[in-house]
Structure formats: C-alpha cells, structure tokens
Amino acid sequence: MANVGSVIDGKYEILKEIGRGGMSVVYLAMDKHLNKQWAIKEIKKVSSNKKNEIVVKSLLAEANLMKRLDHPALPRIVDIIDSGVSIYVIMDYIEGESLNKIVETYGAQPQESVVEWAKQLCDVLSYLHSQNPPIIYRDMKPANVMLKPEGYVKVIDFGIAREYKDGSLIDTTVLGTSGYAPPEQHGSRQTDVRSDIYALGMTMHHLLTGVDPRQKDYIYAPIREWKPNLSESLERIVDKCTAIDPDNRYQNCAELMYALQHMEEDEEAYKKKQRRRLGTFTISSAMTLILALAGVFFDVASSAMDSKNYDQLISIAESADYQDKISNYKKAIEIYPGDTRAYMKLLEAYEYNEEFGEEQSAEFSALIPADKTVFDEDSVEYAELNYKIGMMYFNYYEGGESGESEFGKRITRAYDYFKQCAEESPAEFENRETAECYYMICTFYKKYILSGSSVEEASFDSYDELLNEIESAMDTIVSSGKYDQLAFYNGVFMLLYDQRNGMESVDIDKNRILTLFDDVYERAESIIVNKEQSLKLQNEILDNYEDYRSGIENAYSQRSEKE
Description:
3 domains; six-stranded antiparallel beta sheet; Phosphorylase Kinase, domain 1; three-stranded antiparallel beta sheet; Serine Threonine Protein Phosphatase 5, Tetratricopeptide repeat
C-alpha cells in the first residue's frame, strides 16, 4: 500500500489516508504539477486470489465507465495508473459528509432537505439511464451520497454499476446492499432503471425516518407510521418507488421527478378527491372523522408503546428532547435488553448533551443486565458497544474518588470495556487495533500509575512498549471517522503531558516525545470538523498545545539544571 509522503507516477504525493474498504484504500493526494488535491483509490493486485481478480476488474470497469461520464453530481476520473503491483485511480476529491453519517449523527432529516436531495439524485440517475446503453447504478444508498458544504450532492462508488443488456433475463451476479436493493437485484430477474428507482425510494425512506433498512428485523412501513408529520403526498411517492413489482413503480426518473416537483399540487388534488368521496358528509362530520382517525392513530402509537415496539420507541426518540430521548431509550432497553442499538443511542444522547458523570454512569450501568449472555458476545455489535462505553469513560467521564486524577478516573472506568474489545472482539471489528492501543494505555496506568499497594515502577522498557503501540496506532486511526481520530489524539495528548516526568526519569528521548506530541497536534489541526463533540475534542488539543508542550520541555530542562 502507498505510504504518506510517497509519490505516485512522479506527480501525485500522498498526504493521508481518508478511507478504506475491504480490498481498497483511498488517499488524499496533492498533484505537484497542478498544485491541486485529488482522491486516489488504490487496490493491490494479489495473484492467485480469485476474489481480488474480481474486485480489480470491477474497479477498472468502474473507472472506465466513469471516464465517459460528465455530470456535476458525479466525480471525475482523471487518470488510471497500473504500477504492476497496484492500480491507482485518480479522481475528484469530494469534501463533505455522507448522508449515512449525517442521519447516523443527527437522525431523521427534514422533509424539505430530503426532497431536494432526491431531486438531485433523480437527475443524476436520469443522466445515467439516458446513456447508450443505459447505465444502471444498482447501489443507491445514503452511504454512497456525499453532501458537499454548499448543499449539493455527489454520487460515489460505481463498483457494481452495469450497462443494461436488452434481452438478458437475469443479472449474472447478486450484488447490492441488502435493504436498499430491490428484490430483482437478488437474482430473480434482470435489473433495469426501475431498480434504481426502488433504491432511491428506500434511501428517501431511511433519510426521512432515520430507520436503517439493513437491520435484520426490518419490516417496511409507510413513512408516516414513523413520522406522522410528513406529507401524505411524499408517503405515496416513496411507497410507489418501493413497490415490490417493478411494474407498479415509477417507470422512469422523469415520472419520479415530476411527482417530486408537484408534491403540493398532488396533495391538494388528493384532498379534493377524498372530499368528493365523502360528499354525503358535512364538513363538520368530515372533521369529526379526521379527528377520529387522528385519535385512532395516537391510540395505535400508544398501543405500540404499550406493546413494546422497540423500533418505534427508538424512532420517536430521534426527534424528542433530551429527557424524552433518555426515557424512550430506557424503555426500549427494557423490551430487548440484548439488542445493542438502544444502548448506543443512549450513549450518543449523553455525549451530545455533554453529560457523562457519576449520575449518568450509574443510570447506564443499572440498565446493563448482570447476565451478559443476553447479548451476542461474539458479535461486532457487542464489540462496538463495549468500545463506545470505553470511549465515553475515556473522553467524558467526570466523577469517582476525589483522590484520583481526572485522567485516572477515566482510565479506571474505561479499562474493562477496552479489555473486552482487545481480547474478545471478532476479527472483523473495525476498531480492534485502536481498542488494543486504548487497552494498553489503560493497562499501563493501572499497573504503574494509579494508587495502590501493588503499583510497580514504570521502566524504560514499559514506556518504550507503550509508545511503540501508540505510534503504530497513529497509522491505523486515520481510516476511522473524524471523531474517533480526535478522541484518540486527545487521549495521546493527555498521556504525553501527564507522563512527562515519568518518561524523563527513565531517559525516554525528549525528541521522540515532542515529535509524537507535535504529530498529534498537526493531525488534529488538519481535520475539518463541524460537529460539536468533535470540535470540543479538537479545541482541547489546540488550546492546550503551547502549555502542554512547555510542560514537557520543562520536565527535561529541570533535569539538565540538576545535572
């Protein structure tokens, strides 16, 4: 794989890793000739690996397909380089956030925003479908749509797009993302333009409700069953897009675009039609009926709550205020204590409100069953929960014994969760290496620093081993999200400052400490953030940099003065 600082084809200098997939890595690079930034997707060739051969062919097909296209919502491919060992695809670098990350962070999105995004996506799909032969995208989902700062969307990842072959009964390969892909994409018949319309409908459904269709127990329900304030017209559009039979969907993007552009007229026409059907009723009786229906709806919602509808509780909590969020997540946990989703949402609520002290810790701990077998302890979801709990304690916890240092309190509480991640999480858990580094930091503190009769004295070797682990993790963390990166950098930042005297006392090289310290600062400073939690972590590093660096230098200068 390419390394930071290396130059590809004599002109593309690798600046940093910005993404990683199963068999490819994406870097941010600087064109030394044009002084312009590009994204570079690298895939390493592995001879005798059949899966790799398929991915290489898919990548080249994607690149060659995109080179022919010209649309403002599609990234440009400007170069394809085959080094013999790896293939590099040079493309536009797109600043922004995926719609998937946006809905994960902020929950269901406003109707106006989703409709605007849907129009833009409808336009780009229409462009693809108008090619000769038509190009079927086949992987429309929030994760493949980037929202740029100015509000426009870009569609990324053409790895499974295909040209439509008239007369072919079925697609040769079952691909796509479960939950978004239509039934025909799973081998029952050939995909066509209506398949992309289905996926766009499911994408709209996810963005409007905040409910992820990839969940194992997901059952489709109209959007207004999740969010009653959404328009009836929009509900009919989404339902038509996602019809099981392609013949019952919009037959092309022009039809769908017209529906999106005339939602208000359709809403009024629908209401008039309903009034005509109820012509024998007076206005007052119609109002009575509407109120009765509204009453029925709220009775159903209440009944759903009473009947412990786990998914609906989570969905309702998304748009509730802080206290109601907490209440609904607790109720959901009581329904299915072995499902990790409500625990994760509860932690996110604490985090967003910047509250995770003794009270929240006790409240959360009381919800976790003593019998851990209710969880699937071998699952990625359980590992993610433990990692999230560890991160909350490591970065936010306030409380504990008055004699403990602030950092020590956090370390003590985070230890068991990072230990679980490091020792028992499955191999496919993405944050395993980072969790192992956190675990080592916690272990170091428990063994050498925190008060107790069994505390040993930290040696040169113990510090050296810890620093080696951190330096290795610095290369791994760049593939994580912005928040995870900043959380890790902040932890390292505090550790280097907190342990400056200990490292000086065992002759750890000052330049090594300062180089690592400056590297943390530079990486943190270069991250562009707009979320409150990430900004808080970033500012903690940037605001304390000068004082902490001076503190490290003073620890070493005092020794020189003594000598």
